Amino acid sequence: MPAFQQEVLRLLTLYGDVRLLQEEDAPVLQPFLMLFEDFFWTCEQTLPDAKELLRTHPPQKDPLLDKGVFGFYENNQLYGLVDLVKDYPQNGTWTIGYLLVHPDHQRAHKSTSLVRALESLTSAGMRILRCIVQKENHRALSFWQRSGFIPVPTSHTDITVCKKPMPLP
Questions:
Q1: 133 vs 160: CA distance, rounded Å
Q2: Helices 110-119 and 3-12, interaxial angle, to 10°?
Q3: Which residues does 21 contact at the CB level (< 8 Å), separation at least 6?
Q4: What does the pLDDT look like over 126-146, one tens digit per residue?
Q5: pTM of structure
């Protein structure tokens, strides 16, 4: 396991049962992603595909060295997912590709707990946590703003980029 994924996993497991998801996890991941079919269809214009989510990465980033898809489990059931890319678009900025929480767990503030877990990654070199929200996803934008993320100017008209600077460890 690459150092980035190993360190992130070590830090996140302080918050519970967290696992690095890989292609062999696709049969478990696919039904979980289908719970968010409307989101993927609206925002991505496609149905979710577990293998594609695990493989997709920004240009110039290595999916094995710079990206991790982490599953959060309770009673051996996947309830949350974080897709995280380090040093993107610049060093020290880590970008959340997806943060998904099972609908049955959303009212239990699990999304907020996952964000708090991600904030612990400063000791692994993260200085800014970044996310991208589709303009039409007002509920998500509100969540990120309540979590301390600040929208920043962008030339894109279909997304809102939000950042949260992290205090030094």
A1: 5
A2: 130
A3: 29, 54, 69, 70, 71, 81
A4: 999 999 999 888 999 999 999
A5: 0.93
